[in-house]
Design brief:
Layout lengths: L1 H7 L3 H27 L7 E2 L4 H18 L6 E2 L6 E2 H9 L15 H28 L6 H9 L2 H6 L3 H23 L3 H13 L1 H21 L4 H17 L1 H11 L19 H5 L24 H10 L5 H19 L1 H7 L13 H17 L6 H21 L7 H23 L3 H26 L4 E2 H5 L2 H14 L5 E4 L7 H5 L6 E2 L5 H10 L7 E2 L6 H6 L2 E6 L9 E7 L2 E6 L6 E4 L13 H10 L8 E3 L1 E5 L2 E5 L4 E9 L5 E4 L5 E4 L7 E7 L4 E6 L10 E7 L1 H12 L5 E4 L3 E8 L3 E8 L4 E5 L2 E3 L2 E3 L3 E6 L2 E9 L4 H36 L1
Parallel strand pairs: 5-8
Antiparallel strand pairs: 1-4, 2-3, 6-7, 8-10, 9-10, 11-23, 12-20, 13-14, 14-19, 15-18, 15-20, 16-17, 16-19, 21-22, 22-28, 23-27, 24-25, 24-28, 26-27
Helix pairs in contact: 2-5, 2-6, 2-20, 3-4, 4-12, 5-6, 5-8, 6-17, 6-20, 8-9, 8-10, 9-10, 9-11, 10-15, 11-28, 12-28, 14-17, 14-18, 15-16, 15-17, 18-19, 19-20
Length: 840
């Protein structure tokens, strides 16, 4: 490789600049070609929205742009769930400084900005890994380019390239590792501290794994390099300073995560192995299906030459035995971490990942590629037969895989393809070792580059780049926004809007209206607990309005519903407006933003997993004797449940045992409807049924080996509901004003009661009533409530994310200390340079 460029570019600096440029351009070119093949806009109507990019990043990015353009700041948002700490969400998902470039593009092309930003970051992965390998080995060899391509288009990148919040850390890792090596070998700490601080700033979660690795790699460097207390002190000091400089975002994020289910750290009691080492190493093969689910498989692919080069590295006696031992031991620790539950738990920040396994595998890939490049670099120092031994070791391993691995992800086609490319590399390496002429070197270099590009392109094309329809995703957003603006013209005040069916749990965030659903790792877990008790959809990372009854919907201040047809109109939902194919319904039964219940009113204890009985009791606690819900005729038969209406009205069903996560409704006013994310106790809206009508619920869970569904039907008595809401509406807030972090309201109470606000409490809220700061009570363990006597009240609420000022102070202190150390080091360096000049 170096010979070609030496021929084309006579100047060494120009050659090196060309090499750096190619390390960026080659991965970008491959990705752009794949975009064209996939028909990704503007080359077609497909979009590179996959997994969380579809469900989370696009909605959150939209809200981020809206807040900044509106001058709202990043503290809080009412468009994320029923109200969320937006700073925590920003830090977790959007903190990359590159995201601010979105303001240079029209908002209509936000999707394309995100998609092509992924391409740019993949190119940057190639550039930084190229830079690292050159500096680590102190070489200008263009063979580095081959290995930087594999880092940029590794199995980790193929699996998670849509996960834009992680890619900055993948880009920065080579710089951080280079910085640590400079700290240990040269006593230079700036690159290490700045790059690590930037990594923590952009994504603290992936940085946890990087920090764990840095401790291990530092110990390995102490084994192979000079050791002193000063080096250890510098490592500790500059690591702490890096964290301190990112504290402005890190500290508020830590406080926010303590409010989530991820704040519970339950270390596993027993050691469990997920799979064998052979099964795991086989995932280095080409075109192995990437794992994004819950099966724990790591995505390890980084070029199939590793099967040959790693044995050559391990057996090369010209490499220090300490260095070989340290690096191979580190690789072994990674493999153990991928396959055992306890180490897996530690690496992922004292939590198990909710899908997307082995998130630290990109670090392992950089380590492996570094060892492989050293084996390649030293090929002229070994005998030809060692290349043959490496090839035979690779072939033997692949034969063992074919014999012993029984997996859908690994078949004979993958083995043949992998062995073919390993054979090509073996031939090229052998010829490189034995042919010394200039012409042969150029031919082999070109052939190697073409082979690497072909291999990485084939793997990326077969394992990555899932797409979705661009028009299908964005086509109706203008209608949702127009209908929301129509509601704002009808009335002021605060209210929420929801949907009968949804694309994502962040639809409200995407379209920019207050909602009651969210899918986010930073969500308030206390809201999830409330939804769970009410029979609504929930998990560790989301809560959803699906499963709400007319009563729970009213408690959450939902005033309008979106639907994609006219079939939802009934006594509970009246058609109010239409835009395109989207229909807006006004809820007949709703409550205001703040309503007054009897003093001490709360969700009753007990009723676990039975939201219907719970809501019946809540209505009775308001002084109403009748049940809100009564049972309907229900017949179960295996994978079907038939519910028949005794009288006309709104009907629901509740799952009474966990037998399916997905069900289909057939019949009634909804005609057909699919329910997903079901659990024991989930409530299903069946629509309006006429007396004598029947509907059928059918199990549609493809993964359920014994299809069955167990549910009970219920009729909602709207006359009882009206009585309950009348009690709660007798006294309510007289006026409400709000913005992104402030709520001001007035209340006149004729009698004592409990004011309930449909806003979840978080530690960042500060509440003043008549000028005096008070601590709110919690309704349902979640919503802010205040027990008040009769009288006139002025209420103000102000939100600042917990830990904000502590983070600001820590960042300022850390920057000052780092600056002082940098100035001191610069002055010391100049003094030493001056002393040398005088001596000379």
């Amino acid at each position: 490789m170096k010979g070609i460029m030496k021929y084309l570019y006579r100047d060494e600096k120009t050659r090196n600049a060309a090499a750096l440029t190619l390390s960026f351009v080659l991965p970008v070119t491959v990705m752009l070609c794949l975009f064209v093949i996939r028909g990704i806009f503007p080359f077609g109507d497909r979009s590179f929205l996959f997994s969380d990019m579809y469900h989370q990043y696009m909605p959150f990015f939209s809200e981020f742009l809206h807040k900044i353009k509106a001058g709202e700041g990043l503290s809080y948002s009412f468009n994320v769930g029923i109200g969320s700490n937006f700073l925590a969400l920003y830090v977790y998902y959007l903190a990359s400084p590159l995201n601010w470039l979105a303001f240079l593009f029209p908002e209509a092309y936000l999707m394309e900005f995100m998609s092509y930003l992924v391409v740019v970051k993949i190119g940057l992965c190639g550039l930084t890994s190229f830079w690292y390998l050159q500096k680590h080995f102190q070489t200008k060899d263009w063979g580095v380019l081959l290995f930087s391509c594999f880092y940029a288009m590794s199995g980790f990148v193929a699996a998670y390239n849509w996960n834009i919040m992680w890619l900055d850390c993948i880009v920065l890792l080579p710089l951080i590792v280079l910085g640590l090596e400079k700290l240990v070998k040269e006593g230079k700490c700036t690159l290490y501290c700045v790059s690590l601080a930037l990594s923590i700033f952009t994504n603290f979660y992936i940085s946890i794994m990087i920090c764990i690795f840095l401790v291990l790699y530092f110990l390995a460097l102490l084994l192979t390099e000079k050791r002193s207390w000063k080096i250890i002190g510098n490592f500790v000091l500059y690591s702490l300073l890096a964290g301190g400089m990112a504290a402005i975002l890190l500290v508020p994020e830590v406080y926010a995560l303590l409010e989530t289910d991820f704040g519970d750290m339950n270390f596993p009691d027993t050691l469990t192995s997920y799979f064998s080492v052979l099964d795991m190493l086989a995932r280095h093969c080409m075109c192995v299906t990437t794992e994004r689910g819950l099966e724990h498989w790591p995505n390890l692919y980084c070029g199939v030459a590793v099967f040959m080069l790693l044995p050559m590295y391990a057996l090369n006696q010209r490499i220090s035995i300490r260095k070989r031992f340290a690096n191979l031991a580190l690789a072994g620790i990674f493999l153990l971490s991928f396959s055992t539950n306890m180490l897996d738990f530690i690496w992922h920040g004292m939590n198990y990942p909710d899908s997307l396994p082995a998130r630290q595998s990109f670090i392992y890939i950089l380590l492996v590629l570094t060892m492989c490049y050293e084996a390649y670099k030293r090929v002229d120092e070994i005998e030809e037969k060692q290349i043959l031994y490496g090839y035979l070791a690779a072939a033997a391993f692949l034969l063992c895989c074919e014999k012993f691995i029984d997996s859908e992800d690994f078949d004979i086609g993958i083995e043949i393809l992998t062995l073919t490319f390993v054979t090509i590399y073996a031939v090229l390496l052998y010829l490189h070792r034995t042919r010394k002429s200039f012409l042969w070197k150029q031919i082999l270099a070109f052939a190697a580059l073409v082979t690497v590009i072909a291999e990485s392109s084939i793997n990326m094309a077969s394992t990555s780049l899932g797409t979705t329809g661009r028009t299908a995703y964005l086509g109706q957003q203008a209608d949702y926004r127009a209908l929301y603006q129509w509601t704002r013209q009808q009335e002021e005040g605060f209210y929420r809007l929801e949907k009968f069916s949804r694309k994502t749990k962040n639809d409200g965030t995407l379209a920019g209206y207050p909602t009651a659903s969210v899918f986010s790792s930073t969500m308030n877990s206390y809201v999830m607990d409330l939804y769970k008790r009410l029979g609504m959809r929930h998990s560790k990372v989301y809560y959803s309005f699906d499963g709400a009854t007319l009563f729970s919907s009213a408690l959450l201040n939902v005033k309008y519903m979106f639907g994609e047809s006219e079939k939802f109109e009934n006594e509970a939902f009246s058609l109010a407006e239409q835009s395109g194919d989207i229909f807006l319904y006004e809820c007949t039964y709703t409550l205001p933003f703040g309503y007054v219940a009897p003093s001490g009113y709360d969700l009753p204890e007990g009723f676990s997993g039975d939201g219907i009985r719970l809501q019946n009791q809540m209505v009775k606690d308001l002084g109403i004797e009748e049940d809100l819900f009564t049972e309907a005729d229900t017949e179960a038969s295996g994978d079907n449940v038939r519910i028949t209406a005794k009288e006309s009205g709104i009907y629901y069903a509740m799952l009474t045992a966990f037998g399916t996560s997905k069900a289909e409704l057939i019949g009634g006013s909804l005609e057909t409807h699919t329910f997903s994310d079901l659990k024991d106790g989930s409530i299903l809206y069946l629509g309006y049924l006429q007396e004598g009508d029947s509907v059928t619920l059918t199990n549609r869970d493809d993964e359920d080996e014994s299809p069955k569904i167990s549910a009970q039907g219920y009729l909602c008595h709207t006359d009882v509901l009206e009585q309950a809401l009348e009690v709660l509406c007798r006294q309510q807030l007289e006026w409400v004003e709000y913005d992104s972090r402030n709520i001001n309201a007035g209340l006149s109470l004729k009698e004592a009661g409990r004011l309930i606000l449909s806003v979840p409490y978080e530690d960042g809220w500060r509440v003043r009533i008549n000028g005096r700061e008070v601590e709110p009570a919690l309704f349902g363990g979640t919503l802010m409530a205040f027990d008040l006597e009769a009288g006139e009240y002025s209420i103000s609420l102000y939100y600042t994310p917990e830990g904000t000022w502590a983070g600001v102070c820590l960042t300022i202190l850390s920057v000052c200390v780092f600056g002082a150390l940098a100035i001191r080091g610069y002055a010391k360096g100049r003094k030493m340079k001056h002393a040398k000049q005088e001596k000379a």
